[in-house]
Amino acid sequence: MSYMKKKYIIGNWKIELNQKESLQTIKKITNYIKQHPTNLLNKKIVIAPAIINISSVAPLITGKNIVLAGQDVASKIQGALTGETSVVDLKQQHCRYVLLGHSERRLYHGETDSSVAGKMGLVTQHGLVPIICIGESLQDKKGHRSRQAIQRQLNTILDKKYFLPAKEVIIVYEPLWTIGQSKPLSLAETEKSLLMIRNLLKQSRFTHLQMGSISVLYGGSINAQSARDYWQSSIIDGLLIGRASTSWQSFKEIIKL
C-alpha cells in the first residue's frame, strides 16, 4: 500500500468563540468525524481554541484525525511573563501543535522572526510540532521584495542554532497584506508563492531539515468557497483557516472536501 501524505485543515479560533460555543463546535466536529470516517483518510484536523478553553475542549478530542494546538507560546518555560502560556502547560493540556509568528501576533504584539525562532526551539525541544507563519508585508509586495522578505524569515526562523531535530514542521504562507480582505489570494498566485518557498527550503543552508517532514500550507481570508480550489492543488499541503473555522456550517463544507 502506498503512503499518502495527509493534508492539514487547521482551525484558528482566536477568541471568536466562548467556552460554551467552543464545546458545541468541537462536539459537532467530532460527531461528524465519527459518522464519516472515510472522509478523513486524507486529512488531519488541528483546532486551536482560545487558551482558556483548551482544558474544556481537550477531553472531547478522540482519535488520530483531530488534535489540539496552542495559538502561541511563551518565550520561556517559566518565569515572570504575565499573560503568557508555557509550552509545558500546552503539552499537559494535550496540545500537539503550536502556532508561531501568526500575522496578528506580528502586527499587534511585536513578534519578530528572532522571537519566533526562539519559541520554535522550545516547541521542538518539548516534542510539539511548530506551525510557523511567514509572509511578506504590503511594502515588500509593492517593492517587489517578496522573495527577499520570505528568504530572510526562513533564514532566521530555521537557523541551525535555534532548530532542534523535529519529526514534523509546518510552514504556513500567510501574506500580511491579505489580512482582513474579503477576496482571498488567487490559486495561481498562491501556488507561485508556495513553490518559491519550497525552492528556498532546498538551499544548502537548510540541509539540517528533512524535506519529507515539512508541510507547506496557505492561510489568508479563506472561506468555504475558496477552500475548494486550494484543496485540489497538489502544491498546497493544507489550509490555515480563521473565521470560517468558527462557523460549523462553513467549517463542515471545508472538512467535506
Automatic annotation (TrEMBL):
Pathway(s) of this molecule: Carbohydrate degradation; glycolysis; D-glyceraldehyde 3-phosphate from glycerone phosphate: step 1/1; Carbohydrate biosynthesis; gluconeogenesis
SUPFAM superfamilies per UniProt: Triosephosphate isomerase (TIM)
Keyword field contains ATP-binding: no
GO MF annotations, alphabetized: triose-phosphate isomerase activity
Subcellular location: Cytoplasm
Pfam families: TIM (PF00121)
Keyword Transmembrane: no
GO biological processes: gluconeogenesis; glyceraldehyde-3-phosphate biosynthetic process; glycerol catabolic process; glycolytic process
CDD domains (alphabetical): TIM (cd00311)
InterPro entries given in the database record: Aldolase_TIM, TIM_sf, Triosephosphate_isomerase
EC numbers on record: 5.3.1.1
Residues annotated as transmembrane: none
UniProt keyword annotations, A-Z: Cytoplasm, Gluconeogenesis, Glycolysis, Isomerase
Summary of subunit composition and partner proteins: Homodimer.
Protein name in UniProt: Triosephosphate isomerase
Provenance organism: Candidatus Komeilibacteria bacterium CG_4_10_14_0_2_um_filter_37_10
Lineage: Bacteria, Candidatus Komeiliibacteriota
